[in-house]
Amino acid sequence: MARAAVSGRLTWRAGTVVAARWETPSVRTLVLQVPEWSGHLPGQHVDVRLTAPDGYSAQRSYSIASAWPGDGQIESGRVELTVQRVEDGEVSSYLADVLEVGQPLELRGPVGGWFVWRNEPPPVLLVAGGSGVVPLMAMIRARGDVRGRQPFRLIYSARTPQDVCYAGELARRVRDDPGLDVRFVYTRKTPDGWPDPPGRITVPILNTYGWPPDFAPDVFVCGPTAFVETAADILVALGHDPKKIRTERFGGTQ
Amino acid sequence: MNEVDGNAMAGDLREIFAVDLTAAVATCAGCREPCVVATLRVWGPAPGLVARCPSCDDVVLRLVRGPERAWLDLRGAISLQVPLPLVGSLAEGPAQPVGEA
Question: Which among A79, A217, B20, B59 could bridge A211 via Cys, Cβ 3.0 to 4.6 Å?
Fold first, then answer.
């Protein structure tokens, strides 16, 4: 009953990169094998620590992208992190450009108990800005794994179609996971034939493609600080209960 | 310096506390507004974190992690309400016998 072992000290441990793939030219998913991983909830994250030979160390939080238990593709003890390379980011550029399959990575977790989806009955609205889609993808994957019936909607703002993470999997899940919708918002460049000009997330978009406040959805918003504040303010103005809106902001700009 | 939020403090707090503290509600000593720890505005990165109230911007919590100790300053919080499993519930499961995997 490893799952019941929730208490106990949070300690650093070494995972091993067993696979890696590029989601976009600047976003890479690392598949880690972590010994004695006791599972996680969608929305949780891990802390990653890099230590230089001189003892200097740097630590960052990364959302877990994969669901648990796996859907057959993710084996026991596997944890996927999706990392956006940040300009001058000492940790993210190492994870994106230097770390290779077979190498170790020091991490601890899972941690976080608020920005978490627990397979509850209400409909869910997910609002992603850029790589803020990562923990929301874990929720979509978890719902798919348990064949959840809660209506799920993802509104996903990306700069261009080339910047969309998990594009193929999202298209497949919209087809195969009943009750899942995805609406993209492009801020810089749209696909050919897209009905709207590029632009940021707006009141009409959240009003049209989100759930009405009367449905009392559980709302998860994740992205850069400015994006999260804009989206949360719009949702509150539309009548959503602020207590039902959970946010995670990772700083920077989109 | 990067602004994130209280979610990013989960690991450093979980190192000190036995339960997740990001879901706890802190009452700000400045404006008395209750807020979920995950929603605090946090400037970092680690090892020194300053968490401010989203309503009034006062410092609610400061956390510094040194090589051998953590220093937690909570003078900006009047109280912390920490969600726990219902008393008597089995949600946490019975204690595991020593040796059981």
Answer: A217
- Number of other CB atoms surrounding residue B26 within 10 Å: 26
Same domain assignment for residues A99 and A193: no
Residues A94 and A190 both lie in one domain: no
pLDDT at A5 over 90: no
For residue A126, which of A231, A200, A16 has the smallest C-alpha distance?
A231
In a domain, B16, yes or no: yes
Does the distance separating the beta carbons of A1 and B93 come in below 8 Å? yes
Contacts of A1 in chain B (CB under 8 A): 93, 96, 100
Put simply, the answer to whether A251 touches B4 (Cβ < 8 Å) is yes
The number of domains in chain A is 2
Here the ipTM equals 0.88
**Does A160 lie at the interface with B, CB-CB under 8 angstroms?**
no
Residue A103 lies in a domain: yes
pLDDT at B101 over 60: no
Which CATH number is A224's domain given?
3.40.50.80
Global confidence as pTM: 0.91
Task: Name which of B2, B23, B101 is nearest A251 (Cβ-Cβ).
Answer: B2
Cα separation, A103 vs A115, in Å, equals: 30
Boundary (domain end) residue, out of A111, A133, A162: A111
| Cβ-based neighbour number of residue B88 at 10 Å | 6
Any CB–CB contact under 8 A between B14 and chain A?
yes
| Domain, as residue range, for A60 | 11-111
Residue in B2, B4, B5, B7 to test binding to A, most A beta-carbons within 10 Å: B7
Whether residue B38 is predicted with pLDDT greater than 50 in this model: the reply is yes
Dihedral class, residue A42 (left if φ above 0, else alpha if ψ from -120 to 50, else beta): beta
Task: Decide which of A66, A86, A111 is a domain's last residue.
Answer: A111
The CATH number of the domain holding residue A46 is 2.40.30.10
At A18 the three-state DSSP class reads strand
Q: How far is B48 from chain A (nearest CA, A)?
A: 11
- pLDDT for position B88: 72
- Counting residues of chain A whose pLDDT is more than 90, the rounded percentage is 83
**Contact present, A182 and A175 (Cβ < 8 Å):** no
Give the model confidence (pLDDT) of A130-164 as tens digits.
999 999 999 999 999 999 999 999 999 999 999 99
